Amino acid sequence: MSQVTASQLQSQLQSQQQHQAQVQAQLQAQQQQLHLQAHLQAQQQSRASSATGSTSNDDETKIYTWILELMQGPSREQALLELSKKREQFDDLALILWHSYGVMATLLQEIVGVYPALSPPTLTSTASNRVCNALALLQCVASHNETRNLFLNAHIPLFLYPFLNTTSKTRPFEYLRLTSLGVIGALVKNDSSDVINFLLSTEIIPLCLRIMESGSELSKTVAIFIVQKILLDDTGLAYICQTYERFYAVGTVLGNMVAQLVEQQTLRLLKHVVRCYLRLSDNPRAREALRQCLPEPLRDATFSLALRDDATTKRCLTQLLVNLADNYD
Q1: Which tops the pLDDT comparison, 209 or 301?
Q2: What pLDDT is recorded for position 74?
Q3: Is residue 119 included in any domain, yes or no?
Q4: Same domain for 208 and 326?
Q5: Based on the domain organization, do 115 and 202 belong to the same domain?
């Protein structure tokens, strides 16, 4: 009988461990499915035993029904649509989505599944609507305080960057970019340093800058909102002002937006532009540069009519000009 070597024993042990891990994963999946099904049955029994079931119970039952359909049913597309409709009505939907075995993988599968349609750009309206419903559910997870960091730690935002990197002007692509920006916008709304630090480690700023220049008005608004939130964080401001190249990239796009706003004065874009410049002026190096390169329309009365009823943005613009005065330092 030949001797069994240590390497063979180690190989057998690893094989057994892998098999055990697979079995454990399958058991966890079955337990999750059984839990959801048991919860659904309990909801149905509760409704049946009550003469008048409440609307909230009905909605919760539907949520679990669509979760099961999303994971194992033939109507996944309909489940995506129905769940996306319920995301603002059901406070704990993010927790259910994250902790239900297989749901996040299913949503990522929907996202990755349209990558081949990005280049060459062949994305249809139907495919765009479907993946945007999946993105809406990801936005729900990104917005929730208990799932936001889990969402970040899994690096899920990176799956959206190929969508932000598209340039096609067709409606399906515009909708795809806007919805993807909405997920990132949901992340930055709560002024979390963890979120900003994560985004700074990625290519989100160049992606947003390109959309700020050439996207639709709605996409521009969300993109500049994200950049503004990054600037409002001390680490974000320091990052953008750390090198001339970064400051120049942001300043050039903001300047181009001002030039566009002279032609078509859009208040919601203008107020974000002013706030970005104001925040940049808090950095000494950026402030010195802005004294030379702040667009003239922000110095004169070009936007006085547009800002007539927006006292907050008028104050921001006034403060910006005060900050750039020669005697401010």
Answers
A1: 209
A2: 85
A3: yes
A4: yes
A5: no
